[in-house]
DNA sequence: TAAGAAATTATTCAAGCGTATAATAGACCA
DNA sequence: TGGTCTATTATACGCTTGAATAATTTCTTA
């Protein structure tokens, strides 16, 4: 009865593969389907290996959540260019692939549902949330200032709350029922709504990207 | 070895108690913690009884989700009064207790994370979502019409998408991090933002409720 | 090329899971 | 009040779970 052959992988790579497999399991079968054995199968290893890299199942879930949050926020937080471009790109990125799709939502909701159970997950969540909102708030402040509009801290705070809510909500709608909306309908709604909220026009996406 | 005593409950009451216990378990320990045995303990019965009332665990979860959705939407969909009052109450209800709290979010997220796994849950979800958005769209149409503003179907659709997103997003923010906001800050942000989006003022909440 | 380190597999364990079935007792009606 | 129905308890079964440990194989390096 021959043992299966295997190859030894660098620690970082193996850990990453295991985390990726965990996310695949959660997206496909839900948190309940992300068992140690299923994750191992998906990663092409045996179950015991998971415990060699992660102290417990809780720990691999925490690492997996970190990766989910990073993927949801990293692109939007690295926008470049003038204030208007940065703001507009931020909006578009958050409402299009790969941030907005049903897999993202499945993963996000799975972890959110555990935030109230696992304090460590709650900490990871809070960090990601604050970082996202601060990024948005400074984008708004820069944009308003560049246009010579009122950019007082109070106004920026209120606007950040509203725009953050709008983006979160539209992201949710798009992920949950994307087929109910036209091609780029949600992005259009977001851009025109935010223009209205800020009281300032944003150049249309086409003209703007043609500039670059 | 004496058996434990018990009392026979009417079917409707017992079913309701079991569903309520299910929600308690999910809110406290997450979906994973909502085991047949835990639910039974929470309901003060033994595990076998659950199968007497529900065909399987899947079925009790589906019923539980129906209740969650009903509680999230029923109050807001029953607003009365003139168009402005209805719209404003709709907004306020969705962003205050008991709709907006961390328990609601835990339950909602738990089920949303299973929507992609269980088609029956997906159907329940879709029904609730469409009903909510239609209610909002007609509230907006009535309000715009009453004020003599443009209430064309296209405009109402776009506005409903935006306002729905805004409400969902603010609800999310409030549930997830309520302590980051002032007493009624989210409601204020929602009301002023929606005023801006519609291009029409809403009387403040105080003056309005004093009218009734 | 031989040896040692450790990454990986294989196996085992106790606990908990959803479900099935049999025994019991509460409640209603004759 | 006694008999009957069935809601409820009690117990058991087979599986799966996360975890622990022992056995191997791969890879490095001297």
Automatic annotation (TrEMBL), chains A, B:
Pfam families, per the entry: TetR_C_6, TetR_N
Signal peptide: none
Alphabetized InterPro entries for the sequence: BetI_C, DNA-bd_HTH_TetR-type_CS, Homeodomain-like_sf, HTH-type_TetR-like_transc_reg, HTH_TetR, Tet_transcr_reg_TetR-rel_C_sf
PANTHER family named among the record's database cross-references: HTH-TYPE TRANSCRIPTIONAL REGULATOR RUTR, TRANSCRIPTIONAL REGULATOR-RELATED
UniProt DNA-binding residue ranges: 35-54
Keyword terms: DNA-binding, Repressor, Transcription, Transcription regulation
Protein name as catalogued: TetR family transcriptional regulator
Listed GO MF terms: DNA-binding transcription factor activity; transcription cis-regulatory region binding
SUPFAM superfamilies noted in UniProt: Homeodomain-like, Tetracyclin repressor-like, C-terminal domain
Gene3D superfamilies hit by this protein: Tetracycline Repressor, domain 2
The organism of origin for this protein: Shinella kummerowiae
Transmembrane segment boundaries: none
All residue ranges annotated as the HTH tetR-type domain in the record: 12-72
């Amino acid at each position: 009865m021959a043992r299966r052959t295997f190859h030894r992988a660098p620690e970082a790579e193996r850990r990453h593969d295991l985390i990726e497999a965990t996310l695949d399991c959660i997206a496909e079968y839900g948190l309940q389907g992300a068992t140690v054995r299923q994750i191992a199968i998906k990663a092409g290893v045996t179950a015991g290996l998971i415990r060699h890299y992660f102290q417990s199942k809780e720990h691999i879930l925490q690492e997996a959540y970190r990766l989910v949050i990073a993927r949801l926020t990293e692109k939007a937080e690295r926008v470049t260019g003038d204030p208007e471009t940065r703001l507009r790109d931020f909006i578009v990125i958050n409402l299009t692939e790969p941030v907005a799709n049903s897999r993202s939502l499945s993963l996000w909701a799975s972890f959110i549902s555990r935030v109230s159970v696992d304090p460590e997950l709650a900490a990871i969540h809070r960090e990601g949330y604050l970082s996202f909102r601060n990024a948005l708030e400074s984008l708004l402040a820069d944009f308003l200032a560049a246009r010579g509009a009122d950019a007082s801290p109070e106004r920026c705070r209120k606007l950040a709350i509203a725009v953050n809510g709008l983006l979160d909500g539209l992201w949710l709608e798009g992920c949950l029922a994307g087929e109910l909306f036209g091609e780029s309908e949600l992005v259009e709604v977001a851009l025109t709504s935010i223009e209205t909220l800020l009281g300032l026009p944003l150049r249309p996406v086409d003209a703007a990207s043609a500039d670059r």
